[in-house]
């Protein structure tokens, strides 16, 4: 069972940061999947990601400068273009030819879609291809529509425990205890939801949401939702009414094997979210922080390496997460396409 660390999975696109975290001409160092990454945006607005280490003496490149075209190392001024190739070594004399493009700091495939910067972490340096040729496309909203709401919190836990928390249907009454959300843990109700396999994971089949809930009334009549979970740790919820739609994305991005960043985004088709943004982002942060506090406390226990358990049906999705992840790793090791191991199923619990 899962302890403090998780196996990190590769050959997939990860959410690195929201697009507006990196302005034109700026660079931002991050540790992602245990690797030093330097994200930047050129003067032309295009984003890129380099391995944040100078191949000369290993100093992180972010200590240097970026002129919107190339990153200059702070130690001897070697310059690297946005494809990771060296473009200049100031110390060279005219009679000292060096094949500059052969000197590389390394670059990651990096694209901006729907207001997010995605980075592809290859397994063996391969280019993104097949189902992962592009980052996952979120439904409803266009290529260039940025989320209206966004927050991120550091979770001091592995991606496995972050994922378990994300797909856990029975913790809310005990963990999310703010007055504006609170459910009475003494009044849990039976729930039954249909699930089916979907791309790189599974989804809770579309179902109607309670029409009496005021938050859903904004979307019009006949409000329904579909929630999908997929590698490498994305929860995508699409809530639709006859007037408006909301798409939520929670993205789990590993900092390293035992630390995770949890991003939460919402795209909305109405203008009402804009003036309410500070309030809504505050509420999102309070809510997500309740999940974060759980993993901080859980960590205390995991240090003692306890034996853990998964229980039906409440933990079936946690089990699916491990199965889908294991299948991804096996398919990669055997050099064959991913074959979804899940079957349609109805899960029942009380929450
Ligand atoms: S260490 Fe980067 S240029 Fe020398
Ligand atoms: Fe939660």
TrEMBL record:
<keyword id="KW-0560">Oxidoreductase</keyword>
<keyword id="KW-0001">2Fe-2S</keyword>
<dbReference type="InterPro" id="IPR036922">
    <property type="entry name" value="Rieske_2Fe-2S_sf"/>
</dbReference>
<keyword id="KW-0408">Iron</keyword>
<keyword id="KW-0223">Dioxygenase</keyword>
<keyword id="KW-0479">Metal-binding</keyword>
<dbReference type="InterPro" id="IPR017941">
    <property type="entry name" value="Rieske_2Fe-2S"/>
</dbReference>
<keyword id="KW-0411">Iron-sulfur</keyword>
<dbReference type="InterPro" id="IPR050584">
    <property type="entry name" value="Cholesterol_7-desaturase"/>
</dbReference>
<dbReference type="GO" id="GO:0051213">
    <property type="term" value="F:dioxygenase activity"/>
</dbReference>
<feature type="domain" description="Rieske">
    <location>
        <begin position="14"/>
        <end position="119"/>
    </location>
</feature>
<dbReference type="InterPro" id="IPR044043">
    <property type="entry name" value="VanA_C_cat"/>
</dbReference>
<dbReference type="Pfam" id="PF19112">
    <property type="entry name" value="VanA_C"/>
</dbReference>
<dbReference type="GO" id="GO:0046872">
    <property type="term" value="F:metal ion binding"/>
</dbReference>
<dbReference type="GO" id="GO:0051537">
    <property type="term" value="F:2 iron, 2 sulfur cluster binding"/>
</dbReference>
<protein>
    <submittedName>
        <fullName>Aromatic ring-hydroxylating dioxygenase subunit alpha</fullName>
    </submittedName>
</protein>
<dbReference type="Pfam" id="PF00355">
    <property type="entry name" value="Rieske"/>
</dbReference>
């Amino acid at each position: 069972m899962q302890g403090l660390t998780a196996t990190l999975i590769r050959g997939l696109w990860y959410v690195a940061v929201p697009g507006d975290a990196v302005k034109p001409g700026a660079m931002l160092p991050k540790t992602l999947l245990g690797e030093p990454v330097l994200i930047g945006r050129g003067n032309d607005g295009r984003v890129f990601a380099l391995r944040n280490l100078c191949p000369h003496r290993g100093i992180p490149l972010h200590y240097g400068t970026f002129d919107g075209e190339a990153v200059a190392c702070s130690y001897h001024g070697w310059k690297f273009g946005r494809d990771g190739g060296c473009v200049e070594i100031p110390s060279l004399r005219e009679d000292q030819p060096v094949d500059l493009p052969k000197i590389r700091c390394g670059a990651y495939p990096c694209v901006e879609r729907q207001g997010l910067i995605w980075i592809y972490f290859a397994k063996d340096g391969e280019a993104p291809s097949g189902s992962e040729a592009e980052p996952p496309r979120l439904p409803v909203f266009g290529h260039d529509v940025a989320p209206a709401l966004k927050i991120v919190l550091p979770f001091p836990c592995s991606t496995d425990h972050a994922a378990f928390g994300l797909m856990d249907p029975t913790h809310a009454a005990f963990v999310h205890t703010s007055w504006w959300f609170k459910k009475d843990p003494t009044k849990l109700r039976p729930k039954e939801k249909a699930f089916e396999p979907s791309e790189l994971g599974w989804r809770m089949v579309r179902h109607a949401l309670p029409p009496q809930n005021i938050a859903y009334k904004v979307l019009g009549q006949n409000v329904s939702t579909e929630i999908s979970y997929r590698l490498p740790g994305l929860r995508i919820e699409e809530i639709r009414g006859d007037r408006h739609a909301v798409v939520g994305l929670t993205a789990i991005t590993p900092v390293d094997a035992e630390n995770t960043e949890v991003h939460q985004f919402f795209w909305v088709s109405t203008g009402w979210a804009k003036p309410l943004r500070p309030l809504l982002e505050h509420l999102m942060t309070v809510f997500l922080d309740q999940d974060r506090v759980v993993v901080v406390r859980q960590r205390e226990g995991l240090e003692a390496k306890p034996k853990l358990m998964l229980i039906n049906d409440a933990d079936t999705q946690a089990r699916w997460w491990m199965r889908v992840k294991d299948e991804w790793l096996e398919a990669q090791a055997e050099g064959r396409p991913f074959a979804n191991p899940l079957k349609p199923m109805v899960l029942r619990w009380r929450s």
